[in-house]
Task: structure prediction
Amino acid sequence: MKSKTVGVRCVPWGVLLSHWNLNIRKNQRDEDGLAVILGADITPREHLDEVAEELIPAKGRTKLPPVISVEMLEDTFKGIVLSFDGAVETSTRQGSCGCILWELPGWKILDEQGFILEDVIVNDAEYCGLLNCLTVARVRGVRGLVAVGDSRIVIQQV
Result:
């Protein structure tokens, strides 16, 4: 082996591979982070997320929106809360969605709607729940509201 950078930990591999001619070259471009993975030691469990974060290509990263839940609203909050959800039986592609408009404080229900959906996927059902509730809010003249749902995709994209 001619490489000057081969360390002690690579010697056993070199012995195993000595039956073949090896040409070891420094990797100049590593889009997948493979060199990082191969050169890494065992990472303690508590640092795995940090290491994985460095391996994700910057192009594919999206900034996560702040998580908003009803529990985060102050006790003194006065306004409208829109809550939506959707679900689908994936084998039949039949689903439903629902939405509720609440007025706080007091949790007064202003409107609630449910819809049966055909030939949809889960994201379609979630979007349908949000869009139908926004339509109800617009018809009622609501100008500002807090939207709460369990669909990360819908929340990120809206």
Residues 122-139 form the longest helix (18 residues). Strands lie at 79-89, 94-104, 108-117, 146-149. The domain at 70-157 is CATH 3.30.420.10 (Nucleotidyltransferase; domain 5). The chain has a mean pLDDT of 73.
